[in-house]
Amino acid sequence: MGVRAGTALTTRLTRRRAIGIAAITPMLFVAGCGISKSPGESDSLLAWPAEGRWPDIFDFVDPEIQEAYRYAVAHPDELRYMPCFCGCGAQGHTSNYDCYVREVRSDGSVLLDPMSFG
Questions:
Q1: Looking at the domain assignment, is residue 2 inside a domain?
Q2: How crowded is the C-beta side of 82, counted as CA atoms within 13 Å?
Q3: Are 14 and 21 in contact (CB under 8 A)?
Q4: Which of 12, 18, 80, 100 has the CA that lies 20 to 30 A from 74?
């Protein structure tokens, strides 16, 4: 009985994914405790992730914050199951996903939540 071809690679990729998730999760929780929305801020937080277009504020935040937003936009199903503990429930947030994404629009754009830019 030998090892099936591809088994080690599959295990390694699964481990890599788990390590990646484990590495970014703490950043999501820490970064989720930031600033709140200002009037008229919505248009300036519109992103087009499929085209690689992100709000201008991205140029002024740490790469870790940028990665947290990109991760949140790309993995909504994972973050919707992670509660946020920074006290943003009063702002209507029900999960860690809400700290990053306010709305996904039918045209492919994403309105980001400013909470985590803090």
A1: no
A2: 23
A3: no
A4: 12
Q: Report residue 73 as tokens.
A: 């936009």
pLDDT in tens, 57-71: 888 999 999 999 999
- Beta-bridge mates of residue 47: 110
Phi, psi of 34 (to 5 degrees): -120, -140
Each residue's pLDDT tens digit, 29-57: 444 444 444 444 467 899 999 999 999 98
Domain of residue 73 covers 7-117
Residue among 14, 110, 4, 106 at smallest CA distance from 55: 110
| Number of domains forming the structure of the chain | 1
Contact 84, 32 (CB under 8 A): yes
pTM of this prediction exceeds 0.70:
no
